[in-house]
Amino acid sequence: MGDREQNLKDALELLRDAKIAIQKVSKIYETEPVGGVPQDDFLNIVVEVSTDLTAENLLKVIHSIEKGLHRKRLVHWGPRTIDLDILYFNDDHIQTGDLTVPHPEIPNRKFVLVPLLEVVEPNSQLHKDAQKMLDQTTDKMNVQVYKSGSE
Ligand SMILES: Nc1ncnc2c1ncn2[C@@H]1O[C@H](COP(=O)(O)OP(=O)(O)OP(=O)(O)O)[C@@H](O)[C@H]1O
Ligand SMILES: Nc1nc2c(c(=O)[nH]1)N=C(CO)CN2
């Protein structure tokens, strides 16, 4: 919602403020909303970060950034100013009440897989896995690069 590109920039700045180092940032992709709730198109990016935080503490930082950007959880999968998800955390598999890593929706989300492929090492296992997931999606979603400042 709102100035979508600025919201992404603000989120990156707030991650940096929290001493989370941004290593790589994908291009911005614009996609139709998935999940059945009628709303404006989304802007999505994937970033690679490095941090000394545990995954649980990273999640806490993410929640405080979402709060700082006035994210309101009114409708599940509904409009939001910002949504930060942990897709992967090293090679860890985490399953707690608050956190599932790798994020279980990755294989279903072309708007994640396309920018993910951009930031992971070209010859890595993760790249191969992401490419395979993308090849297997039957999703016809058009994931197009967003032209900066075109709001
Ligand atoms: N890998 C993860 N990254 C971020 N949040 C997660 C993760 N796994 C579980 N969660 C939990 O999901 C809860 C709900 O997240 P949120 O409201 O952002 O869902 P959503 O954006 O509507 O859907 P989705 O998580 O599928 O994108 C968070 O409070 C968090 O505890
Ligand atoms: N295109 C698009 N659709 C969504 C997205 C998203 O990031 N992009 N996130 C959702 C819930 O997290 C629900 N639907």
UniProtKB/TrEMBL annotation:
<keyword id="KW-0547">Nucleotide-binding</keyword>
<protein>
    <recommendedName>
        <fullName>2-amino-4-hydroxy-6-hydroxymethyldihydropteridine diphosphokinase</fullName>
        <ecNumber>2.7.6.3</ecNumber>
    </recommendedName>
</protein>
<feature type="domain" description="7,8-dihydro-6-hydroxymethylpterin-pyrophosphokinase">
    <location>
        <begin position="76"/>
        <end position="87"/>
    </location>
</feature>
<dbReference type="GO" id="GO:0046654">
    <property type="term" value="P:tetrahydrofolate biosynthetic process"/>
</dbReference>
<dbReference type="GO" id="GO:0016301">
    <property type="term" value="F:kinase activity"/>
</dbReference>
<keyword id="KW-0067">ATP-binding</keyword>
<keyword id="KW-0808">Transferase</keyword>
<keyword id="KW-0289">Folate biosynthesis</keyword>
<dbReference type="GO" id="GO:0005524">
    <property type="term" value="F:ATP binding"/>
</dbReference>
<dbReference type="GO" id="GO:0046656">
    <property type="term" value="P:folic acid biosynthetic process"/>
</dbReference>
<comment type="pathway">
    <text>Cofactor biosynthesis; tetrahydrofolate biosynthesis; 2-amino-4-hydroxy-6-hydroxymethyl-7,8-dihydropteridine diphosphate from 7,8-dihydroneopterin triphosphate: step 4/4.</text>
</comment>
<dbReference type="Pfam" id="PF01288">
    <property type="entry name" value="HPPK"/>
</dbReference>
<dbReference type="GO" id="GO:0003848">
    <property type="term" value="F:2-amino-4-hydroxy-6-hydroxymethyldihydropteridine diphosphokinase activity"/>
</dbReference>
<keyword id="KW-0418">Kinase</keyword>
<dbReference type="InterPro" id="IPR035907">
    <property type="entry name" value="Hppk_sf"/>
</dbReference>
<dbReference type="InterPro" id="IPR000550">
    <property type="entry name" value="Hppk"/>
</dbReference>
